TrEMBL record:
Official protein name in the record: RNA polymerase sigma factor
Protein species of origin: Halopseudomonas salina
NCBIfam families: sigma70-ECF
Family of the protein in this entry: Belongs to the sigma-70 factor family. ECF subfamily.
Highest rank taxon of the organism: Bacteria
Source organism phylogeny: Bacteria, Pseudomonadati, Pseudomonadota, Gammaproteobacteria, Pseudomonadales
This protein's UniProt keywords: Sigma factor, Transcription, Transcription regulation
InterPro entries documented for this protein: RNA_pol_sigma-70-like, RNA_pol_sigma-70_dom, RNA_pol_sigma70_r2, RNA_pol_sigma70_r4_t2, RNA_pol_sigma_r2, RNA_pol_sigma_r3/r4-like, WH-like_DNA-bd_sf
Length: 182
């Protein structure tokens, strides 16, 4: 049940006041997309379901920490899920359970990658903005987000100096942010 006019910031602020109905609306709005991302990151549905549950509990209990002046509500929610998933992966002693074909396809602009991105929430706009980035900026961002690789790991994998990777990621994220806000 995706609603492009959903007020994430207001809903999180209502959750911070203990409004259970607001949390239910948030759950109905995002649970499916959160699960899809968690499955992509973790590779296993059972672990993804646990991760989404833990992340949503964290959203409810920490809603009072959300500050709309620091960023968008939806991004805040997804960052909680992402950190939970990455912590789970690190706890298993590995960062990747699934293969890297998805990342390689996305980096190479394959039709399957475009379809996957469009299926995600705000996928069309994100796909458009990612498409605006040149591959040297897009690829490290995708490796960091979907695979949880550190800057050092990305630099090693792409055989590129660490400072260059950091600069590309910074510039790419800045360009993505500008594009998504346009």
């Amino acid at each position: 049940m995706e609603d492009s006019n959903f007020d994430y910031e207001g809903t999180l602020e209502a959750c911070a006041r203990g409004d259970q109905a607001a949390f239910k609306r948030l759950y109905q709005q995002e649970a499916g997309q959160l699960l899809g991302l968690a499955i992509t990151l973790l590779g296993r549905r059972d672990q993804a379901e646990d991760c989404v549950h833990d992340a949503l509990v964290k959203v409810w209990s920490n809603a009072h920490r959300f500050d709309r002046t620091l960023g968008q509500g939806r991004a805040w929610i997804y960052s909680i899920l992402r950190y939970r998933a990455l912590n789970q992966l690190r706890g298993r002693g590995r960062l990747v359970q699934t293969d890297d074909s998805f990342i390689e396809q996305m980096a190479d602009d394959s039709p399957q990658a475009e379809q996957h991105a469009s299926d995600q929430s705000d996928g069309r706009q994100l796909r458009h903005c990612l498409g605006q980035l040149e591959r040297p900026r897009r690829h490290p961002i995708l490796l960091a987000f979907y695979r949880g690789l550190t800057h050092e790991q990305i630099a090693s994998r792409l055989t590129t100096p660490l400072g260059t990777i950091k600069g590309r990621i910074r510039a790419g994220l800045r360009a993505l942010q500008e594009c998504l806000q346009a």
